[in-house]
Amino acid sequence: MAGKKVSLFVQCLVDSMFPQAAEAMVSIFQRLQIDFDYPTQQTCCGQPAFNSGYRKDATVAARRFIEIFENEAVIVCPSGSCVHMVRHHYPELFADDPEMLARAKTVGSKTFEFTQYLVDELNLSNIGAEFPGKVTYHDSCHLSRGLQINSQPRTLLRHIKGLEFIEMKDSDTCCGFGGTFAINYPDISTAMVDEKIENILASGAEVVTGCDISCLMNIQGRLSRREENVKVMHIAELLASTAGGQS
Amino acid sequence: MSKKIESAYIEGAKKAIASPTLQKSLDNIQDRFGKGAMQLWKELEDQGMRDRVKESRMRTLAHLDIILMELAQKVRKRGGKVFFARTAEEAVAYTLEVAQKNQVKSVVKGKSMTSMEIDIDPALEKAGIEVVETDLGEYIIQLAGDTPSHIIAPCIHMDRHDIGKLFTDKLGIEPTTDPPELTMAARKALREKLLSADMGITGCNLACAETGQIALVSNEGNIRMSTTMPRIHLALMGMERVTATTDEQRETLQLLTRGAALQKLSTYVSFNGGPKKEGDPDGPEEFHLVIIDNGRSKILADLEFRESLACIRCGACLNICPVYGKIGGHAYNSTYPGPIGAVITPLLDGVNKHADLCKGETLCGACLDVCPVKNDLPRMLSALRYKLAYGDNRWNVRQHNVKEAYVYAAWQKAISHSSAYRRMIKTARLLQKPFIGKNNMIKKMAGLASGWTDDRDLPPIAQRTFSEIWDEKYAKRQQQTPAIKEETNNEK
Amino acid sequence: MRNDLPFLDNIRKALNLPQGQERTKLTVPTLFEKPDKSATRRRIERRTYQEKQDLINIFSENCTNLGTKLHIAGSLKEAEDITVEIVRSRQPEFSYNRHIVLHDHPDIAAMQLWKRFNRESVTVHTTFSGDHETTEKTIASYIGITVPSISIAESGTLVQITSAGCPRSTSLVPSIHIALIRSETLVADLKEACCLLEDLKPEDSYVFISGPSKTADIEAHLVHGAHGPKEVHIILLKEEPQQLEPQAIQVESESPSEEKTESETPPEQACTLDDQAEETAEKS
After folding, report:
1. Fold of the domain spanning A124-246
2. Which chain B residues are Cβ-neighbours of C13 within 8 angstroms?
3. What does pLDDT average to over chain A?
């Protein structure tokens, strides 16, 4: 893979709360000998504001993102919903501004979710990972429905040595996160995440994984409160694991 | 965001979540019909059908003046009467006038959402007219003095025990909880009403301008009864429920019955228009079609929301929505619950008044996928939130939450400068220390996001953020990234 | 009390059209354009004997799924026997008297049912146009017999068109609906049915009936007979080509041409027909 270079777009939640997921992604690129860069001016793509209706504020974030990333060749992000934001909502934000709209579309076309990049762009399925244990996968909404990314993470998981992949029931049903929804409507959100957790537990998996830390944070938060014995890991962490542990 | 919103929506949701009967029914209906519809669309032989119908729905809407005029002309040619009602009040007044002119004493109703929207029952009852709902679910709801909680399964919040007790109380039957026995009891009671009523009031699933006939869909046969036995048939029609040609009507109906209950066709799809012919023993002597605007033209005028009028009211979005799946229909406090209700209720009845419906979803997108005409409800919910965020003149929307707006304005400043942003993260890392409990999770938060920790833990901000790790570990590894100027024009 | 003008004007305003300028269907003629149906018509007309057999199998399977009882009759005489058997074996639901009501249709008249019941307490009514007591007679009847104009294999559907002497209530108010159909009226799907309907140009109302009345409003428990008929019987009149005519359905599966049919039909469908044949045989 020498000669390739990606620019890391690290979701704000990953940056501040789950840096291990970004580090895992970096270690995979190192293993694959793909050069990478991290534009340090990046902050947030604007998704929380957009989803709450604050489009003017989100537009500021979007404009900034485009300026920071538009000269990069390939942008890779370990979060489906952020990629969805860039690809699908940026053009909405700039619908009335032809110049920005064109720039937004250009940036969108080269922004990839991490597993999508590995499988669709690099044609990889086995990246030499090894992880002993039973793992189930949660389909994040914006990833599976918005970006149609369903098979890519599964392909990668199935090729991890030692990993037993188990599908849970209703893997593509929303976990109840929904950004500020979880904060404003905690009762509904909890009822939803509880159903997700029942399905995770019923699968018998020891680890639940996914491609979007927002959902995983929600699931982890509820698992922890319920004191359930299931571990939550970002898919990059599983893919970074090797015989000697995480590389 | 700044304080917990306690609203009818949240209250209703809590009540629903606490009801095991409702939760079981919701699971059941979603497992069968929601997933079933998704599967059905995947297996549909004619994969172009949904797009074709959507296209025809949108074309109809763009030419609604022509099509409604043609419809009215054709219905009148058949001897039917057409009344255009701009408001609910006009529709109610006309209906009442028809009833009184014909000395109507009793009305049987075939399940109609529009009749609930215009709230016709109280007006008729006030005029001394008996009103009986004839759809079994609606009848049960009426006996219980309750309101429906699902478009096609109105009483899913009640179980056989509730219904058995209700029937013993109200119909005087021997106590039973057996669904067939209960159904037969209602069959008997309603048959008398259906055979003797003076007037039948129904909705209109889909009118056709080419023929001047309206299609009505049912499985029970109550709608056929209501349109066959009484002297008068009055159909209430939302003005968008029309197609130009029979070909469009057929395809749309096929999607409706599939989306609603996975049926290729419902048990009965009847096509009526105009009164009975000379010599016919049954069928109504008078046929009235009331075409209702009641706020729809305002939706029609706004291209952002026009799509919502393409809805064919199959209820599939209710059957897939994970939020509806937990809170049921009552929490929406509207004739139209679920994702479609969350979009059209605010538009018909006030965005601020129904702000919770705009904000109380996760935008997961399942409703878009299951919608037979692929209505982008998440997009419209997001557009409604935009209006609530800053206020909107066209729809008379006030800024919904000043505090929240302030928070996002501050957020916008913070994310505009990476150095300020990183300082903010550092500060938060310091402030969170006292809240971190065992297994390194935050158990309780104050203020802004306290809702999160009601039932959930939160991972704390990491000892080292990725940007810090990057600076320490990776930045020097390679050449400097070309610096991008910090935006300064946003600073005050 | 007409509101047409302000109402439609308001819509024109919503559509951003110039005020006061009325559009008619002539303004946008494409709106009411009908798709070309010649291919569908050809498909219906050129259906081979084998394809028609297949349609019957599909129809049979869908009827079974819906809870409709399909009987196959080789002649009107057999149809008559099946009808008599149903009338005799069922009890009235709402009264003690056995009344049945028939559409005024030549195929039903040809069965001469009144003759079959002239020594039984079964009263046979026909819904002659202009009879002012038809409604009362229909309400009193526990069985209604009609001849739908079209039937649809894909969905097990009957298309019942209202006309003089064939009122709406006959297929609706009695507890049991018996529909007598000829195999020629069977089409593959709704599209074909609508194509034929366009030619028939029904003046009056019509209805698609797929199975008995049903509800699942109580705990999603399926119950037949909510308001309409609890039972629907379809008697499919399938007159074989000349040389096979005298043979009743019991013989059908033994006839050489039928054996060929059977080997080409998926086993479960063949089985459905067989069962059907046996059931009919038992009854007659």
Report:
1. Rossmann fold (3.40.50)
2. 297, 301
3. 96
Nearest CA to A204 out of A135, A132, A131 is that of A135
Length of chain C: 284
Helix/strand/coil for B375: coil
Contacts of residue A180 in chain B, CB cutoff 8 Å?
1, 359
Task: Note the pLDDT tens digit of each residue in B435-474.
Answer: 898 788 998 887 777 889 989 999 999 999 999 999 999 9
Per-residue pLDDT reduced to its tens digit, B280-302: 899 999 999 999 999 999 999 99
Domain count, chain C: 1
Do B155 and B83 lie in a common domain?
yes
> ipTM score of the complex?
0.96
- C24: amino acid identity, one letter: T
Which sequence spans correspond to the domains of chain A?
5-119, 124-246
Average pLDDT over residues A44-68: 97
State whether residue C220 sits within 8 Å of chain B by CB: yes
**What CA–CA distance (Å, rounded) separates A201 from B370?**
27
In the numeric block, the tokens 């010599």 are attached to B279
Per-residue pLDDT at B487:
42
| Residue type, position A5, single letter | K
Does the pLDDT at position B489 exceed 50? no
Which chain C positions have a beta carbon within 8 Å of B176's beta carbon?
none
Tell me which chains share at least 3 CB pairs under 8 Å with chain C.
B
Unique residue bearing structure tokens 């050489």: C256
Q: B18 and B154 share a domain? A: no
Six-digit token string for B320: 């897939």
For residue C103 the two structure tokens come to: 């559409």
**Could you tell me if residue C231 is inside a domain?**
yes
Domain that holds residue B421: 416-477
Mutate to test the interface with C, among B82, B204, B268, B309 (most CBs of C within 10 A): B268
Cα separation, C212 vs C230, in Å, equals 5
Report the CATH number at residue C101.
Answer: 3.40.50.10420
Give the 3-state secondary structure of residue C223.
strand
Calculate mean pLDDT across residues B191-196: 96
Sign of the torsion formed by the C-alpha atoms of C99, C249, C274 and C191: negative
**Which residues of chain C neighbour B294 with C-beta distances below 8 Å?**
none
Pick the residue of A25, A57, A144, A198 with the most B CBs within 10 A to test the interface with B by mutation.
A57
B403 domain residue, yes or no: no
Domain with C165, as residue range(s), is 35-240
Contact call for C190 and B179, based on CB within 8 A: no
Pull the structure tokens for residue C131: 């009879």
At B212, is the secondary structure helix, strand, or coil?
Answer: coil
CB pairs under 8 A between B and C: 246
Q: Does B194 touch chain C (CB under 8 A)?
A: yes
Predicted pLDDT of residue B478: 58
Q: Which of B138, B144, B133, B135 is nearest to B169 (CA)?
A: B144
Distance in angstroms (rounded) separating the CA atoms of residues C54 and A151? 39
Q: Into how many domains does chain B fold?
A: 3
Whether there are 3 or more C-beta pairs closer than 8 Å between C and A is no
pLDDT, tens only, A112-165: 999 999 999 999 999 999 999 999 999 999 999 999 999 999 999 999 999 999
User: Does the distance separating the beta carbons of B210 and C220 come in below 8 Å?
Assistant: no
Q: What is the pLDDT of residues B83-132, one digit of tens each?
A: 999 999 999 999 999 999 999 999 999 989 999 999 999 999 999 999 99
- Encode B172-191: b = buried (16+ Cβ within 10 Å), e = exposed: ebeebbebebbbbbbbebbb
Q: Is the CB of residue C28 less than 8 Å away from at least one CB of chain B?
A: yes
Residue C167 has pLDDT above 80, yes or no: yes
pLDDT tens across C118-164, in order? 899 999 999 999 899 999 999 999 999 999 999 999 999 999 999 99
